Amino acid sequence: MNIRRTEKDEIRGRSKSDVHRIRRKKRDDKMKTETRLEADSIGTMEVPAEAYYGVQALRAKQNFPITGTKLHPVFIRNLAQIKKAAAITNSNAGLLPEDKADAIVRACDEVIAGKLAEEFIVDAIQGGAGTSANMNMNEVIANRAGEILGCPKGSYKMVHPNDHVNMAQSTNDVIPTAGKLTVLDLLAPLEKALVRLEKELAKKAEEFDDVITMGRTQLQDAVPIRLGQVFHGYASMVSRDRKRIEKAHREMYTVNLGGTAVGTAINVSDSYFYKIVPNLEKLTGYPLKQAEDLFDATENLDGFVAVSGVVKTCAVDLSKMCNDLRLMSSGPKTGFGEINLPAKQNGSSIMPGKVNPVIPEVVSQVAFHIVGHDTTITMAAEAGQLELNAFEPVVFCNLFESITTLGKAVDTLIVNCITGITANRKHCKDLMESSAGIATALCPHIGYKASAAIAKTAVKTGKSVRELVLEQGLMKEKELEEVLDPYLMTEVGEERKEDEVRRKAC
């Protein structure tokens, strides 16, 4: 007997992921076998019957099999926000019938909520300045809005991708505006992560304030420094990077929406022109403003270059810090060995017991990645011609990834490295006391020449600077004790003044 299995039978006892996979496969199989015919200015094409995307999105998918990476989900959400704001604005202007506007808004809300995500099929890098991404969104919203109004997918009788969803818009003002909104959204978690990193570094600065070690310049012994001062320097660096990013992202508030193709606002009503940005501002919560010069805002991408530049600067700074952490933790017996990084995984497939500084290493790799992205963004911005830069897709693909990966790198650096760092206090003290570098403190008292001779002799003989100065009778012991006091050598500004007051009081 031939028994037909139902979907219920097929999914019984399956995990949630297996159920999704089975249902997705069934849907895909259905879409492969059933199609609808759609036409554009190029010709006709078979489109999967159940797809919300249309012919233009499908052509783009076939034309641009470039990265295998789809549009960023935050970018998709912001593109839908713009379409929603446009529908509201055109409806208020009396140009878009209320029923169509309501259906478009409902469809946009679904996209904003993360629904229909699989319908956005175009590659992140594409020709045409983002037209494919714009049309992918227009088609999905048109088909879903039409469906809400009772029309089959692909008919476009009630809601048309161009005439209704894209009304008063151009790829050339919609796409860069969506890009700026996405940058703002992605920068927020990065900034929060940098705030946390700054705080954790400041905690370490306080914890290690009494740890004296030897400072180094050009990897050679220099003068004593407190380990707390080293970490305070890192905290200050991160604070400066955070402020740069905060300042740079303000450029993203100025948008060219309403300028349409080249900044002339062709096909735009007066009502739409003046209301579209305020309406989008209400939806996003960002203090957006329409560019005073829409021609400039449409053709130039320098704002994205600026953001990329500060993100790159931050990444480079963090990589430098991570290089320091690797050096200071090197060893454990034959390196600097001043600090210990948390052990996070086995370091070798052949050397037992080896533990590598994997977290600082990954942060540096992220920095290298971001530097490459910044070069791409810079060249793409430079390559724009006349009234439009056609290379926004590659700018966005790289910039979004730079911001996202840096934020994740900062998160893992905090959790898996910074919070667990400990200091080898005795070893740090021994390094300082055995170094000839402390001879620098002698210069104001015995002169540079005599101090240099002491330092050279210390290196050659292995005797301490303190011992040699006393042997040669260059200074009295009490005076020398004060001059070579490591804490006095590392005091700066107000600390030094306070200590002088205390000494005089004694």
Notable characteristics:
506 residues, mainly alpha, Fumarase C, Chain B, domain 1, Fumarase C, Chain A, domain 2, Ribonucleotide Reductase Protein R1, domain 1, 3 domains, two-stranded antiparallel sheet, 21 helices, 60% helix, elongated
Tell me what you see in this structure.
The protein has 21 helices and eight strands. The strands form four sheets. The chain has a two-stranded antiparallel ribbon with strand order 1-2. The chain has a two-stranded antiparallel sheet with strand order 3-4. The model has no long low-confidence stretch (mean pLDDT 92). It has 506 residues and is mainly alpha-helical. The longest helix is centred in the middle third of the chain and has 37 residues, at 171-207. The chain folds into three domains: 26-167, Fumarase C, Chain B, domain 1, CATH 1.10.275.10; 174-425, Fumarase/aspartase (Central domain) (Fumarase C, Chain A, domain 2); 435-505, Fumarase/aspartase (C-terminal domain) (Ribonucleotide Reductase Protein R1, domain 1, Orthogonal Bundle). It is elongated.
